[in-house]
Structure formats: C-alpha cells, structure tokens
Amino acid sequence: MLRSALINVMVQAAYKAGRGLKRDFGEVEKLQVSRKGPGNFVTAADHRAEEVVYRELEKARPGYGFLGEEGGARQGSDATHRWIVDPLDGTTNFLHGIPQFAVSIGLERDNTIVAGIIYNPATDELYTAERGKGAFLNERRIRVAGRDRMADAVIACGLPHIGRGDLALFREEFAIVQAKVAGLRRFGSAALDLAWVAAGRVDAYWERELSPWDMAAGLLLVREAGGFVTDCDGNDAMLVKGHVVAGNERLHRELLDSVKAAAKK
Description:
Layout: H1 5-31, H2 39-60, E1 64-68, E2 72-74, E3 78-89, H3 91-95, E4 102-109, E5 112-120, E6 125-130, E7 135-137, E8 140-141, E9 154-157, H4 167-178, E10 183-185, H5 190-198, E11 204-207, H6 212-224, E12 228-230, H7 238-241, E13 244-247, H8 249-264
Parallel strand pairs: 1-3, 9-10, 9-11
Antiparallel strand pairs: 1-2, 3-4, 4-5, 5-6, 6-7, 7-8, 11-13, 12-13
Helix pairs in contact: 1-2, 4-8, 5-6
C-alpha cells in the first residue's frame, strides 16, 4: 500500500512515540508487583509520548495547531489545520499491564477530520485512514462488519466509572441494548473501539463522556470503512458533545434508537 506523505508523517510520529510506550509498558508490568504501583511512572510516560508526537508533527508541518490530552491546545500560525492527539488512549489498561492502548492522531482541516491513524504498540497494529481513500489495518483494506441483526451482533461500549459519567443513564442504555444483542464488550480504549468497528471486529459501539482526542481519528476510520457515526442524538457533533454511536448502517440506526429510548426514560 502506497501511503500519502501526510499519512507517513503521522505514522512516523506514532511509531516513535510507540517505541517509548512499548519500553515503558514493560516497566509497568514489573511495577504492578510493587507496593507503590506504576501510577506516577505512567503519568510521565503519557507526557513523554505527547511531546514526542508534538515534536515530530511540528517538524514536518510547522504552524499547524495542536490539541493534546496532556498539554491542551497549542495555537499555530496555520488556523486551518489542527492535530488532535491522544498520546496514550487506554491509560488505565496501560497502568494495569493490559495490552489494549494506543496512540491516536487525527488531523482536522477547516473543522473536518481529513486523516487519522491509531497505533497499538503492544500488538503492532496500525490503523490508517484518509478522507476519500479508505481505511486500512497495516497493509490490508478494512470494512465494517456486514451483520444486520442486533441478535447476532457484538457491541462495544464504555462504562462510567467513579466520579465520571451518568451511571443511571448508562444502566438504562445497558439494559435496553443487553436484551437485544449477542454480546456486550468493554475494552477500555475508545480509539481502539472505533478502530475495531472499522475492522469489523465488533459490530457497533457507543460511549459518552469522551474528549475530542479519544475520537478524532476513529471517527474517520469508521466512515472510511463504510460505517456510520453520529453523536447519541443522531447528529454530527461528536467532538462537541462528547458522545458517539458507530456501526454499519443498519446496526448504527438500531443502536442509536436504543440509546435514544434510554434517554427518554
């Protein structure tokens, strides 16, 4: 597969940050058995990874704006372009030695996501997408799953946790969806959940209380893989509202209807 210069820039930044994360992940697995635990170590790893990504992207595309989970917004001289970056999506997984985490990089041009990559250093899986050019896992073209019945579907979701999220609303959503599907899964990385929808590994996905860097790259991946993505109200304001529903056309519609029904209770 011949990648564009833009995707190559993003991939190289992710690979460089990923090498550090992979090394740090090995240390985290050792720190699990210590009394202090790996908390402070992982926080430092997160910040290091973001700085690596920022430096690589800034060197290749000077002047682009940058929005990162750790460093926040950095204004650039080019107001039409902005990188949206999560240097370590799935921090809690990383913290516990669970190899389900990723570097996520999206590029926004004039308020539209035009390129995205998601890289899991633990599995060496690289998801890439550019607007109008399809979605890929490593060198292979990917498509959303073709299942059209909720009863056959495995659905990914997020779980609100202590101090974050509307637990009562999620219980309503969970109860409605659980009664309709073959299985529900909670993997702990929104970026990879969206990538897995794009790759057909899960049939659909919904989650609330997300940030732009959790979703930016994954939204494009799903759409370029033939899927549908909206917020939980059925609109195109995912990055603003912080919630998402994704899947193929049929399952996206049915999952969205279920989420809407829960919100009305």
